[in-house]
Design brief:
Blueprint: H1 4-35, E1 42-48, H2 66-74, E2 76-82, H3 88-97, H4 101-104, H5 123-128, E3 132-136, E4 152-153, E5 168-174, H6 179-182, H7 186-194, H8 217-246, E6 253-259, H9 274-277, E7 278-284, H10 290-293, E8 305-312, H11 316-324, E9 349-353, E10 363-367, E11 371-376, H12 388-391, H13 394-404, E12 423-427, H14 445-462, H15 470-477, E13 490-496, E14 503-508, E15 515-520, E16 527-528, E17 533-535, E18 540-546, E19 556-559, H16 580-585, H17 589-597, H18 607-613, H19 619-632, H20 636-647, H21 655-667, H22 671-681, H23 687-699, H24 708-714, H25 721-732
Parallel strand pairs: 1-5, 1-6, 2-8, 3-4, 3-5
Antiparallel strand pairs: 2-7, 6-7, 9-10, 10-11, 11-12, 13-14, 14-17, 15-16, 15-18, 18-19
Length: 736
């Protein structure tokens, strides 16, 4: 059985699975009824990519951002807002659900998650409450955007498509500041500069370069272009706000501006330093809604206000529901920071880094208003692993070149150290760039212990699944790699309405947690099903069902004839497998994983415990035992002992355990025995098994040379991250 914490969490999740799905729409209807007592606000979100609070309104003198500076003067500037992830997809996964990706299994970049059945995209609750919800156009939720999330999700999506008098929630995702735009071709930049007045162009010579970058013309050029993109984006924001004014809606609309994580530059995006997770948030609340936004203190959202509360991205979803008068579901982990359901301010925010594209790392962080604690769960890996997309940035190429030449100095070199410290602690007040690690400083021991304790408690309470190796987790969430399909909806004629006006039809779906979309013939767009649909003679009713992380159901239809038609016989309902979260919480796996990772840093003293854990019933625990043993064994005696133990694992039932054991044995001179295991894994049916095999082959260096034919073949692998890793292997081996 699992730990007491797992039992409590499992009981809570079972309660949510049994009640939230059934009650979600009744709760939402209650919220909608409550909101009708007063006028409901429209809400406009303007989100941007890859940006820290690098704006004039935040005190940045290098920035040129007049429209956003004006918006801040008209609203509230939030100074302490943080993403839970330093990359877009996991960040947006948490925003759309109000849940930590590490809880719902959407933590690896570009994975396909299967959230628990009670988890919804929060716009569904708004739609059920009568809001017109649009998204223009990025989703990137780590699961396909469900049909039921938005009234419209397209490049044309706009509040202008709503019915007369209908409140709206409209999202505009601006992508101009994305990291890829910094490295655009010179011809593209020439056109961009034509859109900027001379005073709006950023002089690279005037840039203030962070101390962890080499101060070179290449780095300054990237930095200046990043700011140029912010200015161009600011113009886009101005146009959207102008449209709001032209439509006469500015005084009826709460406006949010935010960025999805930090700068798209080295040591920022993908890292959980503040440069990767600290973001701008500006909210303008019209006068008529200030009492709604802050009932106890309306002046707290008046123009020109600065807010210092800690705010996390997972707080966005419940805050939106609070402002719209919708009851916040109990399962959401975020806290509303505005509206009638406002919660007390946070003391801490949390962040996580897991796989980034083709590269694995595992890092967690906790931050209060002053201190940042970081726990590196793979300290044996360098910060500076190769990520193809990141390596295309000129400043990243510059840093790698200078490092190879031995010309980096001070904190610039830290990124390329062979290993990472187990723990990091920074005083962000005196060290905003987070370059002076205080974790080993006796004067900060009390702070480190407090933050470490909070971090472990967060992992336990939220059921962080990050310690489960991705191949193991993939099998847990989708056994055999098979996607489940949402059951086909069924129709039931529930009651006759006035003569000649047809009947009321109820639509149901057997899949737990499914949402249903419907449309009537002659109507455009899919509607969210929340109550029986009135169907007139001759009309055709179509329906589809969807659940997060499942394939959508087939589309079905129901037609009412001149005489009352019989409801079609419901198709046989397919059994839905027990959800991975339920199965996981029936075990003590997470507790065992935390226990074995608590051995990190103990060196040779931990070897007996690692050897014992090689017989653990869970493959995930055996994997970390292999990794720990490999890093703890330094002298010939312990290495020989470990070789004997790991040789037995070359036939382990878990592919990731076989890969870890084979990599260690190759490094210890047993490549004749172990290399065939890595080659075999390179052909495995699982994408992430093949990726881990490729990574292991890359880490054994020249010992991978006998596998060159298989590596060349792997350049055609269908999983895009495998060829990226193999490309670097072939480069290092001197292969074309």
């Amino acid at each position: 059985m699992g730990s007491e914490g797992s039992m409590k969490r499992r009981d809570f999740l079972h309660l949510m699975a049994g009640t939230v799905t059934a009650m979600a729409w009744s709760r939402t209807s209650l919220g909608a009824d409550e909101s009708r007592r007063g006028e409901r606000p429209n809400i406009l979100w303007i989100s941007v990519e890859d940006m820290n609070p690098d704006l004039g309104c935040y005190g940045d003198r290098y920035a040129v951002s007049p429209n956003l500076d004006r918006l801040a003067a008209q609203g509230v500037r939030y100074n302490n807002v943080f993403s839970h992830s330093p990359v877009c997809a996991p960040a947006r996964s948490g925003i759309i659900t109000g849940m930590y990706p590490t809880t719902i299994g959407t933590h690896h970049m570009r994975c396909q998650g299967v959230p628990p059945p009670y988890v919804k995209c929060f716009p569904e609750y708004l739609r059920a409450a009568g809001y017109y919800c649009t998204n223009n156009v990025k989703t990137d939720y780590q699961f396909p955007s469900p049909l039921t999330a938005w009234d419209e999700c397209s490049k044309q999506a706009h509040w202008r498509g709503r019915a007369k008098g209908q409140p709206f929630f409209s999202v505009f995702n601006l992508t101009l500041t994305h990291e890829s735009q910094i490295r655009s071709a010179e011809s593209v930049w020439k056109k961009r500069w034509e859109q900027l007045a001379p005073h709006e162009r950023h002089d690279p010579d005037q840039a203030v370069v962070p101390p962890y970058y080499p101060d070179t013309p290449v780095v300054r050029r990237d930095w200046a272009r990043y700011y140029d993109l912010i200015t161009l984006m600011d113009k886009q924001v101005g146009k959207i706000l102008q449209q709001l004014e032209e439509d006469g809606l500015a005084e009826d609309t709460i406006v949010w501006f935010w960025a999805d994580h930090g700068r798209g530059l080295p040591r920022a995006k993908r890292w959980i330093y503040d440069s990767g997770i600290h973001v701008p948030l500006i909210i303008r609340v019209p006068e008529k809604f200030r009492q709604l936004a802050r009932p106890e203190d309306p002046e707290a959202v008046q123009p020109g206000t600065v807010n210092e509360d800690l705010i996390a991205f997972i707080d966005f979803a419940p805050t939106m529901l609070s402002l719209a008068g919708v009851k916040v579901p109990a399962y959401m982990q975020g806290r509303p920071f505005l509206g009638p359901q406002k919660a007390p301010p946070r003391q801490y925010i949390f962040a996580a880094r897991d796989r980034m594209d083709e590269t694995y790392d595992l890092i967690r962080a906790v931050r209060d208003k002053r201190y940042k604690y970081i726990r590196n769960y793979m300290p044996h890996l360098t910060y500076g692993q190769d990520i193809d997309y990141m390596n295309q940035m000129p400043s990243m190429q510059e840093m790698r070149r200078l490092n190879a030449e031995g010309r980096l100095v001070g904190p610039q070199r830290n990124y390329f150290l062979a290993t990472k410290p187990l723990e990091e602690l920074y005083d962000t007040l005196t060290d905003p760039h987070e370059i002076n690690n205080l974790a080993a400083n006796p004067a900060y021991q009390e702070v480190r212990e407090r933050m470490r304790r909070v971090h472990v408690q967060w992992m336990e309470e939220t059921g962080d699944v990050g310690l489960i190796p991705e191949p193991e987790f993939d099998e847990l969430k989708r056994p055999g790699g098979k996607w489940q399909k949402t059951a086909t909806p069924t129709f039931t004629a529930t009651s006759e309405v006035a003569s000649g006006e047809g009947i009321a039809v109820t639509i149901t779906c057997a899949t737990p947690g499914a949402s249903i979309a419907y449309r009537l013939e002659g109507k455009t767009g899919w509607q969210l099903y929340t109550r029986p649909v009135r169907l007139k003679p001759g009309q055709v009713l179509r329906a589809k069902a969807c659940r997060l992380g499942f394939h959508d159901s087939d589309e079905v239809q129901f037609k009412l004839g001149e005489r009352r038609a019989k409801s079609p016989s419901p198709p046989p309902s397919s059994e839905t497998a027990v959800h991975w979260r339920d199965r996981l919480d029936e075990t003590d796996l997470l507790e065992r994983l935390r226990a074995i990772k608590a051995l990190d840093g103990q060196g040779a003293e931990a070897i007996p415990k690692y050897l014992e854990a090689l017989d653990d019933p869970y493959g995930a625990v055996r994997y970390w035992a292999v990794v720990g043993l490999y890093n703890a064994c330094q002298d010939p005696g312990t290495v020989e002992q470990a070789k004997t133990a790991l040789a037995k694992l070359l036939s382990d039932p878990s592919p990731i355990v076989r890969i870890a054991a084979a990599q260690a044995l190759c490094d210890w001179g047993q490549e004749n025995q172990a290399l065939p295991v890595l080659v075999e894994a390179l052909r495995h049916k699982s994408d992430t098994v093949r990726l881990n095999a490729a990574i292991a082959l890359g880490q054994i260096g020249d010992k991978a040379r006998p596998a060159l034919p298989q590596l060349r073949a792997a350049m055609q692998d269908s999983y895009r991250y495998v060829p990226r890793v193999v490309h670097y292997i072939l480069q290092r081996l001197g292969e074309p």
